[in-house]
Write a structure and sequence with these properties.
single chain; 301 residues; alpha/beta; Rossmann fold; 9-stranded mixed β-sheet; 12 helices; 21% strand; disordered N terminus
Length: 301
């Protein structure tokens, strides 16, 4: 009869999350037992063809993180870059809706699965894998790690100048998996809103990046005042300028503020990036300044 330690060591990936064995690779956030080591070469080969990799994070939900990720990717593409957008918000993928791709499905190619393309932007999301858009995704930690790995390793991304990675709020499985799989992440863009409760959660995201060795490229304050659709004047609604002092206190760059703009919501609902469809809006103007700060349109940045 096997002893308790042997039973724990022989656990399956599905059991690893609750088996209690601290020596298990899955418990430590590493590769599940079933993933072959030789796949590392394939993963590295895919990543070597992508020059820059940026992760977009938030401390809490509802701050417009996916909106920022979509428009970062689209801005770089409009500047002439070859860009991919990887949506690893596995339980609540919103990128397909924001880009008008609901109902699209991935197809197989000679070199792997093919991302869905929109205007030259290569996009991959869990939403493309669901039979019904209302189906829930009920996955535990080890399975999430495996799926995210497949999103990079088994997908024919080709040669890219930039890969923007949209992860769900918080500091859980998905952002941790990305940081472990992509050793040369350029850094993280962290999104907040002005009020203190959101800024407090952003501190956790910054500390997460510090612990896993990922550079914080900067903080974006979204929903920073209301931009009048008639005159363009920005009026504070939420607590003003909560992001800047927090970023300064944490010692990371403050990239800028994006006002609440009805055109932003309309663009997302219509499946369009607001930097393109509402280019004259105050929000798009503020976002272009952020993009310049991050040098996303520069080939050799």
């Amino acid at each position: 009869m096997q002893n308790e330690k042997e039973n724990k060591t022989d656990c399956s990936p599905e059991q690893c999350e609750t088996c209690g064995d601290t020596s298990c690779a899955s418990r430590q956030g590493g590769r599940p037992h079933s993933a072959p080591v030789q796949d590392d070469a394939r993963l590295k080969a895919r990543l070597n063809r992508i020059r820059r990799k940026i992760i977009v994070m938030s401390g809490k939900g509802g701050v417009g993180k996916s909106t920022v990720a979509v428009n970062l990717a689209m801005s770089a593409m409009l500047a002439g870059q070859r860009v991919g957008l990887l949506d690893v918000d596995l339980h609540g993928p919103s990128v397909p809706t924001m880009l008008g791709l609901v109902g699209c499905r991935m197809e197989g190619g000679v070199d792997g699965m093919l991302p869905v393309e929109v205007g030259g932007l290569k996009v991959l999301s869990t939403g493309f894998l669901l039979q019904n858009n209302d189906d829930p995704v009920i996955w535990r930690g080890p399975m999430k790690m495996g799926v995210i790995r497949q999103f990079i390793e088994d997908v024919a991304w080709g040669d890219l100048d930039l890969l923007v990675i949209d992860v769900p709020p918080g500091t859980g499985d998905e952002p941790l998996s990305i940081c472990q799989l992509i050793s040369d992440l350029e850094g993280a863009v962290i999104v907040t809103t002005p009020q203190k409760v959101a800024a407090a959660d952003v501190r956790k995201s910054i500390n997460f990046c510090n612990e896993v060795g990922v550079k914080v490229l900067g903080v974006i304050e979204n929903m920073s005042g209301f931009a009048c659709p008639k005159c363009g004047e920005v009026t504070p609604i939420l607590r003003a300028n909560g992001g800047r002092p927090m970023a300064e206190e944490m010692g990371v760059p403050f990239l800028g503020s994006i006002p609440i703009d009805p055109l932003v919501a309309e663009s997302g609902d219509d499946g369009k990036a607001f930097v393109e469809s509402a280019a004259s809006s105050p929000a798009a103007g503020a976002f272009r300044e952020i993009v310049r700060e991050l040098a996303l349109g520069e080939k050799n940045a």
